[in-house]
User: Fold Transporter substrate-binding domain-containing protein from Colwellia ponticola.
Amino acid sequence: MALATLSAHAQNVVHNDGVNTPLIVAVAGDAPFVIHNRADDSLEGISLSIWENVAREKRWQYQYKYFETVDKALNALQQGQVDLLAGPISITSDRVKDFRFSQPYYQSSLTIASRDENSTIWAKIKPFFSMQLLIAVSIFLSLLAAVGLLFWLAERHHSPEQFPADAKRGIANGMWLAIVTMSTTGYGDMAPVSLKGRIVAGCWMVISLIFATSMIAGIASTLTLSGFSSSNITQVEQFPGKKIATKSGSPAIDFIDEYQGKTVLVTTLPEAMEKLKNKSVDAVVFDRPQLMFYKNNHKADNIHIPNAEYYKQGYGFAFRADSELINDVNLILLELAEDQKIERITAEYLGKN
Assistant:
């Protein structure tokens, strides 16, 4: 617990029961909105910086009381153990039934985090070793061998200097002729001289034009599909049957269920990201700014976060239903927004973008 004394002119708040005491401010949530420094038990973050500006304007004294989860903090608020809750608290219809909220001071959304396995060297060359591509190459080599055999059978008696009697050398020369014919390279070092050889060459020219275009299209399709089959989950259409981690009490639970993902509940965001790292889950769904902040501070983990955003939601301070503080807090929040102080606070932690 951290006691915050704002100034010599700071005032206590008279509660509904007539008792004049400092406000007890519950604190819960993830970085960068709430950062709990366990070494000295200090607290900081976007939400707390905004609240401290509000309290300074009203000359309120207050004490922070840290909770490990938002659910525990909301429960304490409902039981009257604290006066309000500060943190990245999503304003949802379910919560509004039991609590009152300030106006939103930050607009957030849900997004997806998955392993960025395409960033590794192996991921980049892996498609070239796919079964489909190997089958296509095998068919191509078999076809070249067949055409090379036909060239050798047609030309070995008419052009023994080009197609010697030795089968290995003769078929190999025939395959070389098939390749230069298909690629239209035309070095001129070899050419069929017999009628049968020219018929084989003519048929191969027509067939190779069709085959070459089909093979190129097939290889491109294989490489594309191989890229799509990576473990990156970038859209909700990929959710069915996949294990998706999120925090208990998060609005992301309903979101995952809606898109038929298998929800894996955790108590903290680092726990969810650790499961993603060791491949216990396929993706993590949580509030976008927290995921982006985690990614920026764990670059070695190769986390992929797409541009897609879902479930737009506002963060606000939560109060009990009978609280008389909301109007004062809303007024100061409007003034802070008009003075762009809230924007400057968020930029300190998240950057201007």
Observations:
- The longest strand covers residues 106-115.
- DSSP finds twelve helices and 16 strands in the chain.
- Residues 1-10 have pLDDT under 50 and may be disordered.
